[in-house]
Amino acid sequence: MSRLIDNCRLPRPWFAVVSKATLRDDALAGLTNAAIVLPQGVAFAVIAGLPPEYGLFTALITPVIAAMWGSSMVMVSGPTTAISAVMFAALSQLAPPGTPVYVQFALTLTIVAGLFQLLAGVFRLGGVISFISHSVMVGFTAAAALLIGASQLSGALGISVESGGGVIERIARVVERWEAVNPLAVIIAGVTLLTIILVQRVSRRLPSYLVALIVGAGISDFLDARSAGVAMFERLPSIVPAFSVPQVTLADISALMPAAMSVAFVGLLEAISIGRSFAMRRQERYDSNQEIIGQGLSNVVAGFFQAYAGSGSFTRSALNVESGARTPISAIFAALFLFVLLFLFAPFVDRIPKPAMAGIIIYVAWRLISFDEIRHILHGSRSETLILGLTFLAGVTTELENAIFVGVITSLLVFLHGSARPHLAAISPILYNGRRLLRGVEAHDLEQCPQISVLRLEGPLFFGSVDHVEGEFRRFETLYPGRRLKVLALKGLGKIDLSGVDLLAAEILRTRKAGGEYHIVIAYKETVLALRRMNLFAVLDKSWMHPNKAEAIGAVMEHVDPQVCATCRIRAFVECGSKPAPEGMPRDSGPPVVSVLGTRGMNFRD
Fold it and tell me: Is 355 in a helix, a strand, or coil?
């Protein structure tokens, strides 16, 4: 609790850099952001299944709290597409969207999600959150985009269908009602969508959503769409959020727990990835745990003031940076300007046609799919492709919130699988630009010394990886038999536990029993201390432990059989120059010379 209190204290460190110049720049950036978030707030509330004012209240409250207590200098928080989609997918199974019960559930879910986030901040889980594969979010947002687009088809076509269900169910319902399509609704949605695309091409700094909404409303008035049956939004009952405690039971809270965990998790993934991205770009300090505190506080407060869960918005954060924002006060200015704009535009909300908003949301859904990231993942990594694919399929074929859990579990399994298979390579010297380098025998088609086996282990040696490593030991014994002198380089060793030490001890005793020597290369003092603590040196002679491979090879070369050397044409090591050589072959012929790309045109990797 004391840690939470410390993290919630003001002033924040950035207060010291605030000046008249930064206030001016932040005010201009805030005004630009307010013009963008006005239509976005309405659109995201519609995605979440809530009345429009709840999205606007989220854009008023969340960025202020998150800016004051977060860590990012330029990130703007508020309603987001992904969180709105998760809330709709989860809550639409419990109550009809837009109803008072649905609204109470949404506010309760927001508070519970904020409490989960606060707990994550107190226990400093920022590193754990960012540990989850980026492919989870890419797959999840792609699935969310399809769900959002499918949910807006009926609005864009001017037909009424049952809400709820997955992507396929929603599309099927629209197809069943195809004969009821309203041509005016299609025209309004199409013109609105085309306006956004054209304005975005002119300049991304222009409030394209607001311009498109005005054009859509203008087309609606010109065509008298209301009298033709095109649905309109209702007037906003209030533009000032009021304090209220959600009216729910303990059973309701229990039913909302899984969805709250999903919302909390998605929100933190979004906020941390966005905040860290901009901090690295601007060379600023970023504390993910402090950001978690800011996000948690913003959601807890929001739930009591008629706002639903929010997170960092990449679109508004990028616009904030492009508009010259200097400090988090720009987000506070954006909320203040939005409040002023609400007074100006609130009287006209009932003139906004729902097909126009549907056109905007379909554009938002399209932009949510990161095609470049998907291509990069598909071409770059099989394991990340698996994570992406399973997350996406889970989101499309089951409930959207399930996609997060499937993606997280898959990414953890992939990590564990990789950790349990550390890379063990047989290595041999090559000459490159006059230097002797040890490179992978299998990767570069090299030959090993007939008397010495040199292996290099890269990765953790723990209870989960010992079976794989032992199997690799046996494989190399089969590939390169008869080598009684062994060198194992542990320079790339990550973690080692008692199971790993037991395996090393067994290998040492096995080699010693066969009349050989087992030398180990340990470069770091911490590894030596760990091995000493776990009693490896009870079986490993200290003269068999070396700080580098050169010293280890020099030590084992003193025990090679000269008669074998006299028939060996490999001459793998520099030390071979002091050993007998085959007739007609110079003693110091040395290891093979390679080109820049190495043998078989490959880079220098095992």
Answer: helix
Distance CA(48)–CA(56), nearest Å, equals: 12
CA–CA separation, 161 and 92 (whole Å): 14
Residue 424 confidence (pLDDT):
93
Per the CB < 8 A criterion, the answer to whether 248 and 44 are in contact is no
Which tokens is 416 given? 């564990």
Residues of the chain with pLDDT under 50: 595-606
Taking the C-alpha atoms of residue 311 and residue 72, their distance in angstroms, rounded to an integer, is: 12
Say whether 500 sits in a helix, a strand or coil: helix
- CA neighbours closer than 13 Å in the CB half-sphere of residue 267: 39
- Answer yes or no: are the C-beta atoms of 331 and 64 closer than 8 Å: yes
For position 438, what pLDDT does the model report?
80
Query: 541 - beta bridge partners?
Result: none
Cα Rg, the chain, nearest whole Å: 32
Q: Are 151 and 88 spatial neighbours (Cβ–Cβ below 8 Å)?
A: yes
- Alpha carbon distances (Å) from 567 to 447, 484, 571, 574: 15, 17, 10, 17
Q: Which of 253, 250, 292 is nearest to 122 (CA)?
A: 292
Residue range 293-317, pLDDT digits in tens: 999 999 999 999 999 999 998 878 8
What sign has the CA pseudo-torsion 87, 89, 91, 96? positive
Q: Answer for the pair 122, 3: CB distance below 8 angstroms, yes or no.
A: yes
Q: How far apart are CA 30 and CA 328, in angstroms?
A: 10
Under 8 Å CB-to-CB from 242, ≥6 apart: which residues?
Answer: 305, 306
CA distance 401 to 87: 9
In whole angstroms, give the CA distance from residue 517 to residue 451: 11
Q: Which residue has the tokens 């709250």?
A: 260
- Report the distance separating Cα 605 and Cα 563, nearest Å: 33
Please give the order of strands across the beta sheet that includes 423-432.
Answer: 435-440, 423-432, 452-461, 485-496, 517-521, 545-546
Give pLDDT, residue 599. 36
Q: Collapsing DSSP states into helix, strand and coil, what is residue 427?
A: strand
The set of residues, in sequence order, having a beta carbon less than 8 Å from that of 301 and lying 6+ positions away, is 61, 65, 114
Q: Show the tokens assigned to 397.
A: 């074929």
Instruction: Give me the residue label for tokens 């969180």.
Output: 83
Please, are residues 335 and 64 in contact by the beta-carbon 8 Å criterion?
yes
**Two structure tokens written together for 414:** 């992939």
Please list the residues that pair with 458 across neighbouring strands. 423, 492
Torsion on CA atoms 511, 513, 515, 518, rounded to nearest 10? 30
- In the chain, DSSP finds a helix count (H) and a strand count (E) of 24, 8
Dihedral sign of CA atoms 521, 523, 527, 528 in order? positive
pLDDT at res. 446: 85
Residue burial 311-324, b: 16+ Cβ < 10 Å; e: rest: bbbbbbbbbbbebb
Give residues with Cβ within 8 angstroms of 58, minimum separation 6. Answer: 41, 44, 45, 78, 79, 302, 307, 308, 309, 310
Listed residue (257, 235, 234) closest to 105, CA to CA: 257
Residue whose entry in the numeric block shows the structure tokens 């694919």 = 389
Give the contacts of 506 (CB within 8 A, at least 6 positions apart): none
DSSP string for residues in 453-466: EEEEEEEEESTTTH
Whether this model's pTM surpasses 0.90: no
Q: Is 286 helix (H, G, I), strand (E, B) or coil?
A: coil
